[in-house]
């Protein structure tokens, strides 16, 4: 992916550019094959079948970072975490704490609104077996870097779902200008790391004023985690509430 030309055109322009990306042959072939063959339950629907952009307001103070769109979820609907079981869990929790207008997310035109929250992923195409390669992750990174840069004026907290997202997000934050501790923080559910903005010659207070971000780890909302109880709705709500407070957002108890 050629990130040249990704200047200050805003998130809407970035999202439009993402949806036209064809940089990873394996992912292009897979997402388009899934869109042609479909799942029987969705045989009458037209699949999106393209890269899935982020979803949420351009002035979000809280960002949620997943892994990649689901083959019959985001790859079908065209919206992150929409139309699959993982999305059912995530949006229900966001609604429960007061950060979403409804508990369900079934289609891109269902009227769902997020309040101060944006949802994205480090890989924008549905991968076979939900497993992008490291090369595909790295190819997609400039999109996440630019998204972080565009969100920088308002962004105060980030929830990363799962170890893959954590490993992909840290280099993106570094490229976008935040100072990532060395050695890099290890992913864990409930992990919290402060990333300060790097500013040449600035002291800590100046860097904080320049825009620090609180990074939170959370187990992914995959069926493997939610069906086994590794991640419960209460655990997810707790992380979201803590991150929302760090982002300056008001939540329901």
TrEMBL record:
Keywords: 4Fe-4S, DNA damage, DNA repair, Hydrolase, Iron, Iron-sulfur, Metal-binding. Gene3D superfamilies: Uracil-DNA glycosylase-like domain (3.40.470.10). SUPFAM superfamilies: Uracil-DNA glycosylase-like (SSF52141). The keyword Transcription regulation does not apply. Residues 53-240 form the Uracil-DNA glycosylase-like domain. InterPro entries: UDG_Type-4/5 (IPR051536), UdgB-like (IPR044147), Uracil-DNA_glycosylase-like (IPR005122), Uracil-DNA_glycosylase-like_sf (IPR036895). SMART domains: UDG (SM00986), UreE_C (SM00987). Transmembrane segments: none annotated. Coiled coil: none annotated. It comes from the Bacteria. CDD domains: UDG-F5_TTUDGB_like. The keyword 4Fe-4S applies. Belongs to the uracil-DNA glycosylase (UDG) superfamily. Type 5 (UDGb) family. This is Type-5 uracil-DNA glycosylase.
């Amino acid at each position: 992916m050629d990130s040249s030309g990704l200047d200050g055109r805003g998130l809407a322009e970035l999202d439009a550019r993402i949806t036209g990306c064809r940089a990873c042959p394996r992912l292009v072939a897979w997402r388009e094959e899934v869109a042609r063959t479909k799942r029987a339950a969705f045989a009458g629907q037209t699949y999106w079948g393209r890269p899935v952009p982020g979803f949420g307001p351009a002035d979000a103070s809280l960002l949620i970072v997943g892994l990649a769109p689901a083959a019959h979820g985001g790859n079908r609907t065209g919206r992150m975490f929409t139309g699959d079981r993982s999305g059912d869990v995530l949006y229900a929790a966001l609604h429960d704490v007061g950060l979403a207008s409804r508990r369900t997310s079934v289609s891109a035109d269902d009227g769902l609104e997020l309040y101060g929250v944006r949802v994205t992923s480090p890989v924008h195409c549905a991968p076979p077996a939900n497993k992008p390669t490291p090369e595909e992750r790295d190819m997609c990174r400039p999109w996440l870097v630019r998204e972080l840069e565009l969100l920088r004026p308002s962004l105060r907290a980030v929830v990363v779902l799962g170890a893959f997202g954590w490993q992909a997000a840290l280099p993106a934050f570094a490229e976008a200008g935040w100072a990532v501790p060395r050695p890099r923080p290890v992913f864990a559910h409930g992990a919290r790391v402060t990333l300060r903005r790097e500013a040449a010659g600035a002291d800590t207070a100046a860097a904080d004023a320049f825009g620090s971000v609180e990074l939170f780890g959370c187990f992914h909302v995959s069926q493997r985690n939610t069906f086994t109880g590794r991640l419960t709705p209460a655990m997810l709500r707790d992380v979201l509430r803590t991150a929302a407070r760090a982002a300056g957002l008001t939540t329901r108890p």
